[in-house]
Amino acid sequence: MKLQADHNNAPNEPRSPKLSDRIYAGIFERIVNGEFVQGERLPSETALASEYRVSRPIVREALRRLREDGLIFSQKGAGSFVERPPDAAMLRYAPLESIADIQRCFEFRIALEGEAARLAAERASSQELAAIERAVNLLKERITARELGVDADFAFHLAISKATGNNFFSDSLLSLEGQITFGQNLARNLGLKHPNTRLPEVQAEHEKIFEAIRRHEGDRAHEAMRQHISNSRRRVFEG
């Protein structure tokens, strides 16, 4: 399923979801709707497997992803509990069937772009560093103007991927542009509820990544990028 960059347009030809996606979305919806409230213990893996007619490993995978998104937590020997409900406002921007894809896209980007940042720090030319800096400055202008700045955000990530010297990184990002900008739009629209913290937070993370790349500090750039995308995922699911 390809998510559209325009958050008002829902995907119209969804792919057949994986079983774990279906369980993830089902539990997600039940938390949003208040069937499972904050602090409540979820049914056991065995009970969920029976209810959804899937194997326990499928349920376990869905629960792992819900934990990564900060929606549930697990206690050894006690089961899984609702950490907090997601912001219901996100469903105004993303249909429920898109949520699993958004989560998977963030997961993939953490791996892909973390390594891209490391390679960019090791290989970027002066011209490529200038392109990354221009994108950082453009995003700063957008944030100052209280604009979403999705164009500048994507340009920043694309400039880093191009600075790797490996076109597979930039080609991968371009192939995911719809999904990435959909997630960026979602994060920005939810972030407008916290205009004095969320947007400056994003800018500070971008500047930290750029500074590490500029100084040719590969490990630091790798970690800063992974943390930035993890934070982006958190901002989406926390609202």
UniProtKB/TrEMBL annotation:
Residues 17-85 form the HTH gntR-type domain. GO terms for molecular function: DNA binding; DNA-binding transcription factor activity. It comes from Rhodovibrio salinarum. Gene3D superfamilies: GntR ligand-binding domain-like, Winged helix-like DNA-binding domain superfamily/Winged helix DNA-binding domain. This is FadR family transcriptional regulator. It holds the Pfam family FCD. Keywords: DNA-binding, Transcription, Transcription regulation. The lineage of its organism: Bacteria, Pseudomonadati, Pseudomonadota, Alphaproteobacteria, Rhodospirillales. The keyword Repressor does not apply. Residues 219-239 are annotated as: Disordered.
